[in-house]
Amino acid sequence: PIGDFNAINTEIKLFNPLLAKKPQVIVLNKIDLPHVKEKEKELIKQLKKAANHSRVLAISASTGQNCRELMFRCSQFVSALLIESEKEDMELMQNKEKVMVHLDEENEEQQLSLTGARGIKFDIETDIKFPNSYRIRCPRIERLVGMTNWEYEEAEN
Predict the structure, then answer these.
(1) How far apart are the first and last CA of the chain?
(2) Which of 10, 39, 68, 92 is paired with 49 by a 20 to 30 Å CA distance?
(3) Are 119 and 139 in contact (CB under 8 A)?
(4) Is the distance from CB of 61 to CB of 29 less than 8 angstroms?
(5) Residues of the chain with pLDDT under 50
(6) Handedness of CA 7, 78, 138, 147 (dihedral sign)
């Protein structure tokens, strides 16, 4: 299980480093099986050490053992995260945003750099080659667009 935990976290880091920084809840399943039950305490200890936190719970999805406890703890944990997120959003909104405007009078091009409410930075540009059009540059948006399968009918909706 510790190797699996480390492998999953490595995959998450490679997929999205920001996602890897999000808080986790770790569940050790199958404690109804004798070979897992006998190693449960040691596995929990190792998982807490590997995760560097104590949000680890042993359950049996098959028998339902500790499943209600898991749901309750997750509910409490998510509620606390939402409250913290709302506080951060309020702080961001209270801070006056810095807006940088770059005007290139010679080429009649403009660039506006903004930071959104969640700290996401993006630029809005004009280009004289494409009048009345705007180009939005944002690494996060560009990454999402790059991961989109445009051949899928629902991708454009």
Answers:
(1) 40
(2) 68
(3) no
(4) yes
(5) 96-97, 99
(6) positive
